[in-house]
Amino acid sequence: MLRLKNINTYYGKVHALKNVSLHLGEGEIVTLIGANGAGKTTILNTISAVTPASGGEVLFRREPVTALQPDKIVQLGISQVPEGRQVFKPLSVEDNLELGAYLRYRARESKSDIRRDMEQIFALFPRLEERRKQLAGTMSGGEQQMLAIGRALMANPKLLLLDEPSMGLAPLVVQEIFRVLERLRQEHGTTILLVEQNAKAALKLADRGYVLETGKVILEGAADELMENAEVKRAYLGKDKKEIWER
Questions:
Q1: If residue 188 lies in a helix (H) or strand (E), which one and from where to where?
Q2: φ, ψ for residue 209 (rounded to 5)?
Q3: pLDDT computed for residue 238 by the predictor
Q4: What SS3 state is found at 7?
Q5: Residue 230 vs residues 61, 225, 239: alpha-carbon distances, Å
Q6: Cα radius of gyration (the chain)
Q7: Do 192 and 164 meet the contact criterion of CB atoms below 8 Å apart?
Q8: What is the pLDDT, as a whole number, of residue 71?
Q9: CA–CA–CA angle 116, 77, 51 (5° rounding)
C-alpha cells in the first residue's frame, strides 16, 4: 500500500531523514521504534506532506505522491493523528468530528454517509457519544486522544498514521485505545503506521517494525523477532518500562 524509497528530509540545514526506505502492506500494522529525535515523527510528516521530502519517493498504492499537498494526501486516503492530539479545544466533540470530514463535505459526499460514519466513531468510543456536545478542551487527555483518532477516521482513510497515542495517558486508557486500533484493522481493514513510546506495547500490536537511529533505518523485521532481538531489548524494552498491553 505504501512505500518510501530513499527518502531525505531536512529541517533547514538539519538532515532529519537519511535515505529512509520502508513499506506497508494492505491491512498491516507497522510500528516505528527509536529514541527521541530519531526521525519517527518526521517520517509521518513526510508521508502526509506536512514536511515535504527533499529527495526520494513516496508511493501510495503504487502512485507517486511525493509532490502533493497535504489536502490531496488526505483525499487519497491517508490521515494523521498528530502528537499531542491537537483537537480544536473551543469546539464540541461533534464539531471536531465534522471538521475531520471537511474534504468529504467539499466533495459533496452524501451527508447521510458522513453522519453514519460519525455514529461508527461513537460506537468505537462510547465516551465520545456521551460527550458529543461537550467542548473538547474540557475533556481529559484520554478523551481528547480518542477524539483525535475519531477526527482522523472521519476522513475515511485507508492508511492511518498515529504519533505517540499513549503519551501522558493512564495505562487503562491506552489499553482501550490499542484495542480500538486492532479492531480497525480486523473489522475495517485499516492499515496503520504507529509511532509509540512504549516499544513493547507497540510490538505486541504490530505485525512488523522498523528501528530508527539519527534519521536512518538500522533494523527491520517481524514484530516478534524485534521483541527478541538483544539490541532492541537493551535499548527499548528494558525492565523499567511498564507494560500497558496485555492479551
A1: helix 171-188
A2: -150, 160
A3: 63
A4: strand
A5: 35, 10, 13
A6: 18
A7: no
A8: 96
A9: 130
Per DSSP, helices labelled H in 1-78 are 40-47, 70-76
So what's the pLDDT on residue 245?
42
Largest separation between any pair of C-alpha atoms in the chain: 53
Burial class, 137, CB count within 10 angstroms (exposed 0-12 / middle 13-18 / buried 19+): exposed
Helices marked H in 16-136 — which ranges?
40-47, 70-76, 93-100, 102-106, 111-124, 126-130
**Alpha-helix runs per DSSP H in 22-69:** 40-47
Alpha-carbon distance of 247 to 232, in angstroms, equals: 21
Q: What is residue 111's predicted lDDT score, i.e. its pLDDT? A: 95
What pTM was computed for the model? 0.93
Question: Distance between CA 118 and CA 153 in Å, rounded?
Answer: 9
CA distance 210 to 216: 10
The rounded average pLDDT for each run of 10 residues, N- to C-terminus, in the chain (247 residues) is: 98 96 97 94 97 96 96 97 95 98 95 96 96 97 96 97 93 93 94 94 96 96 95 76 44
Residues contacting 89, CB < 8 A, separation 6+: 135, 136, 137
Name the residue with cell 501522558: 168
